[in-house]
Amino acid sequence: MLDLASLSRGFRQSYLDHATLTAQLRAWATAYPAFVSLREIGRTQEHREIWMLVIGTSPDDARPGVWIDGNMHATEVAGSSVALAIAESVISIHLELAGGPASSVPLAPHLKRAVQGALFYVVPRMSPDGAEAVLTTGRYVRSVPRDERTNRGAPRWIAEDLDGDGRLLFMRKEDPTGDFVEHPSAPGVMVPRTLDDVGPFYKLWPEGRIEPFDGDVIPSPSYLGDNYPDLNRNFPFRWASEPDQLGAGDYPGSEPEARAVIEAASRLPNLYAWLNLHTFGGCFIRPPGDVPDGKMDPFDLAVYRQVGVWAEELTGYPMVSGYAEFLYEPDKPLFGALSEWAYEHRATLSYVCELWDIFKRLGLPRPKRFVDYYTSLTRDDLARLARWDAEHNRGRIFVPWKRIRHAQLGEVEVGGLDRRVGLSNPSYEELPAICASQSTLMLRVAAMLPRLVISRVEVAPIRENVTRVSVTVENHGYLPTYGMRSGKKRPFNEGAYAELSCEGCELEEPLRTRLPIGHLEGWGKGYEASSQAIFFQTSSGSETSHTLRFTALGKGWATVRVGSSRMGFVERRIGIGGGM
Question: What is the DSSP letter of 463?
Answer without folding.
Answer: E
